[in-house]
Amino acid sequence: WFLPDCIEERIKDGMGGENGLLIVEQNFPPLTKTDLNQQIFTFNLRCTEITELINPITPERVEIKFKAYRQNLAELQICLADQKIEKTLTLIDSDRYFDYFSLDVIIPAETEFIKFYLILSQHKKKIYLGVNGFCDNLTDIQPFIFKNSPEQIFNTPDWVKHGIIYQIFPDRFYNGNHELDQDFSEWYYQQPAPGHDLPSGQEHNAFSLVDDWSDSSSLRADSKSPSRKANTNSFFGGDIPGVMKKLDYLSDLGITIIYFNPVFPARSNHHYDAADFLKIDPHLGSEQDFRELVSTCHQRGIKVILDVAFNHTGDTFWAFRDAVEKGPESEFYSWYEWKKWPLPSENNNFNPSDYYNCWWGFAHMPELDFDRSRLSPFENQIRDLEDADVNWPVVNHILDAARFWLKDMDIDGFRLDVPNEVPFWFWKIFREKVKSIKSEAYLVGEIWHDAREWVSGNYFDAVMNYAHFRDPVLNFFNLRKSTAEDFDARIRQGLVTYPRQAVQVMMNLLDSHDTYRFLEIADGDHTRLKLAVLFQMTFVGTPHIWYGDEIGMRGGKDPDCRRPFDWDYTRDQSKTELRDYFRNLIRCRKEHSELRIGEYRTLLAKDGLIGYKRTLDNEECIIIINNQNKKIDLKLEIQEKNVYWKDLLSKRNFILESGALLVHLSPWQGVILKKIKKG
Questions:
Q1: What gap in Å lies between CA 670 and CA 455, rounded to an integer?
Q2: Among the options 289, 337, 446, 550, which is catalytic?
Q3: pTM summary value
């Protein structure tokens, strides 16, 4: 990608690159005007674009959600066509662009289909919305039809709502058994990957085992020496026994969910280029090691989810090797999308994409073929199984792999790599298979943008929440390039975009194995990280920690963000204090249920000051974060009497004075105020 010269402003994208920034003037006319014959503006939107979704919550209840341009509607109603009952949707939220409406509809017993249409009102003007779009006359409307069946109910795992996720890159966490260390004896280390002879002068990127765990210099490029590149092929010896030995550390921190990057046998240290979906890399440990780890985790109340990449395999994968050797005579040749065969044998420097489809052109990651009637990426948008020529051997093998990890290894769910590059219909089959084995298994997809298409009872429970959590948090707390008003609007958009069941299990991350570390972007400023974590641990969804963030690890572009865990962190008081801060916030979240599953409501958002409330039944917390370099004296009007407020961080008590709660905040400070009844 390149940035046009006309765009002079630049902003870091968090992955080592830059995005262009174009400032648009805001003095344009409002979206709606009530003096134009009291017209309702639909802006030629199709009905599929303006209706958000139908969210089946239980067999007796569905949620109808809808969004419209801000202040464009005076009222929004739903008419249950069969019963001729009209109900008004509640305006549940607004941001600077849209109003969001919602209504829970009770379904009569044994009702198979729900027929409804929407009535949009603006003053005396009404317009009707059905499956055929917008109509001026009620007689022209064709109602939406929703089939009410148990299969439609969208349930997400309850344990995830109460969890703390800790992501581990196995090779970089802890070396628990040196006998497992890489010796590069496997056949695939004896020859270069297809099309990738190691050019002269790049010996720095040869496969190697780093003897000194604390020396991560090979993972960083040297800007002063352009020939010195980061080594993406170095190993450090982290393994499954190492994680077992550090479970006390994780339990003490408060972790309840471990998310492992892939553990398949593979040529790479990241293991996304699997050689076998049904095995564990012998340099990480044995099947028995992994079973013992999962069992021990379960005894400690810790769940385990595994990262899987089913869009592709490695070029070392047994089926691909058979296809390379035998060509069309191989029963596995059709598992991949071949353009021509055989591969060149003498000169290995060729373009693999000329011979087979591979993920983003990487030769060592040949793409699997799910739909025989279409090439990638055209197969990915197909939703109905009937519209695809299903490559059942591929599909069934992946389903067998899911069963192996869920049943034989007893894991609790999957993080799905690049799932938007796999057909929709496959994920529906995959979900059905996974949930039939473990109904409470967690399915979370890696999708970096708005993912409403994938989050439902048909596909995923949640996604890695880059779009509606990580990105706004990064801009507000770290880069400090957005106001509290902008931050609040972007955060709340995520709350109304996804079904409420999914919102509570979103993987809310600050960084990951694919991004710069949060502290690297913050240039080591712990204050920025602390405020971001304070928000993360008090927001809706499941907090995610990329290993080492809690002790202040830094790292730039991959592979630098994957440095070995700094087990000498206790020598640095600032790192120890940071870990204690993480642990204290995790404890607060665990002890106060409203911080996990309570309702979220914004109280204030101005400049660098954000305040919000979390409530559940009679329990209530108010969180105020001063993300700016000035003191703040805040006065909150409180109606309830006979209460006082305790800051769960400083343990200070705040007393109401004349019906107001006075809060004084230093620069870059936050509080979690818990309502306590007197007496």
A1: 32
A2: 446
A3: 0.91
